[in-house]
Amino acid sequence: CKKEDVKDAMLEVYNNYQYYLALVSEGPEWVKQYRWSSLKGKYLSLVKPKEVILGGQDLVTDDFLMTTSQVLYTKYKKILSE
What we know:
- By secondary structure, the protein is mainly alpha-helical.
- It is built from 4 helices and 3 strands, in the order αααβββα.
- The chain has helices spanning 3-15, 17-31, 36-47, 70-81; strands at 52-54, 59-60, 65-67.
- The chain has a 3-stranded mixed sheet with strand order 1-3-2.
């Protein structure tokens, strides 16, 4: 980021201090989504997805992996069929 971006962000927090102070209390709950227990299914889906879908977005869920890339889709299909 640039110096100007940092300056703007600090000014934003200064001018809206109460709003950001309220967000801080939600932080511990928000960060739980990044714990291993929450991400385990997605990591497993990257390595060995239950289903691979060629679709309109790039998405990893506990149940499937969706990709917009025909090349990646083909690679997964080939690996999973072995």
